[in-house]
Amino acid sequence: MGQEWDVETLCNDCKSIIPDSINTSSHLTAIDLVRSYYHINNMTAPTFRIEYMYAATKSPNYMRKFLAETAAFRALCGEAAAKGVYLSDSMKDLLQKGGDFPADLAQSLIKLAKEDFPDPRKGSKCDWHEHADGLRCAKDDVEPYMTS
To answer: Does 16 score more than 50 pLDDT?
Structure first.
């Protein structure tokens, strides 16, 4: 909805129940919660979630970018499913469908390789927010998921 109506706060704000395991000392947005949840649970984006998000949103979109980066991170830094199997059948199917995802994944693979493989689930949450007015977020509080 936030993208559809070009409303920055709808792109960022989250009206959900926040799990106790997530530090809520500062304002958290939907993307912050997803990044934290993925980090706490050592997850990267499953193919069905990537496919759903790409079907339900348009580009550019931070959630799309995050999901593509976690898929790239898993491909480059995760364990292979089996010896010599680096790409799941579901990921192959998604890539063959075309659309924006294959290019976004390629962009993420290149970015991760050139930037020494930063984990997209860690780091500044401000990097993942909409800033249409040009104002950056207040200085990040260091969240536990950002450092471990």
So the answer is: no
